Amino acid sequence: MEFNVYLSGEIHTDWREQIKKGAADLKLDLDFTSAITNHAASDAAGDLLLPESDGFWRDHKSAKVNAIRTKNLIEMCDIAVIRFGDKYKQWNAAFDAGYCAALGKPYITLHDEDIIHPLKEVDAAAMAWAQTPAQVVEILRYTSA
Hints:
The protein has 6 helices and 5 strands. The protein has 145 residues and is an alpha/beta fold.
């Protein structure tokens, strides 16, 4: 079964590549999409509309431009994987999880055990919680069989 898998969240590690490689090694019929993962490019997305000197309005415009991509990719996905890292608070990932839940899109959370408590509501709506990219690949293998 072919699935479109949206990969959301933390951009500072290679978890996306690990999942894609694991899926390719198993020859899973999956298409992967993601938000822009280049932090500087994402932050500057709104600069296309005219540069802002005020940080709030720059971030506001960039968030809206980025949301065009994110909103459409989440709506088109069959499954989302939402990664929460330990270094930064990924509010965008929590928002993506909430959007998936509102749309009835199944999602898998991917995070370490030490942030279970702050993510309890996000995890409660998830179909699965994984601690490693390898576990995500196994879930995708099973569900796409």
